[in-house]
UniProtKB/TrEMBL annotation:
This is Late embryogenesis abundant protein LEA-2 subgroup domain-containing protein. Keywords: Membrane, Transmembrane, Transmembrane helix. The chain crosses the membrane at residues 12-35. It comes from Crotalaria pallida (Smooth rattlebox). It comes from the Eukaryota.
Length: 187
């Protein structure tokens, strides 16, 4: 009777160990393939450029609308916290851009609207500004670090950080801007 009982316990432990090994293998495989974090695709669009003026009398700040398009290719959603982005001209911060808390759902595309209070006097203080105006183009950079949490299958929540940097080419004669953005996610 005792040998039957021991035999049943051994079989139970063996089956349990086998299921545990299979489960661990599946989790490890999924984490290295499907659930591996992918960098989001980000693009930056300047809006209402026609209304923007560098040379406003008695004003040191001019508002510029921005739309940030984020494509989340991951199987987890990302919830960011309030952050501040920076717009630079030749390594001089010319605007601080508030980014509000947002949830970007898994495998989706989202537009985030905000505005930048451009400090036009900072542009004019740079000696190269006037030569850029004569050339008809300005090169700007934008950067932001978004701290937040990634939620996988509404169960697993991990801290994450998304770093975004964009190069913006502002064509003054055509009154349009093009941007190239690079983003990296760190878990």
């Amino acid at each position: 009777m005792a040998t039957r009982r021991r035999r049943r316990i051994k079989i139970c432990f063996s089956v349990s160990a086998l299921f545990l090994i299979i489960f661990a293998t599946v989790i490890v495989t999924l984490s290295f393939t499907i659930f591996r974090p992918k960098d989001p695709e980000v693009s930056l669009h300047l809006v209402d450029l026609e209304k923007f003026q560098f040379f406003t009398p008695n004003s040191t700040s001019e508002s510029l609308g921005l739309v940030i398009t984020v494509v989340n290719k991951n199987y987890g959603s990302f919830k960011s916290r309030n952050s501040i982005g920076y717009l630079n001209y030749r390594h001089i911060v010319v605007a601080k851009v508030p980014i509000e808390t947002k949830v970007i759902p898994a495998r989706s595309k989202m537009n985030v609207s905000t505005s930048a209070g451009i400090m036009t006097n900072k542009f004019m203080s740079d000696p190269m500004f006037w030569s850029d105006i004569e050339a008809g183009a300005l090169n700007l950079t934008a950067s932001v670090t978004l701290p937040g949490k990634v939620s996988m299958i509404k169960i697993l929540k991990l801290k994450a950080m998304v770093n975004i940097s964009c190069n913006i080419y502002f064509n003054l004669s055509a009154v349009k801007a093009d941007s190239i953005c690079i983003s990296k996610i760190k878990m």
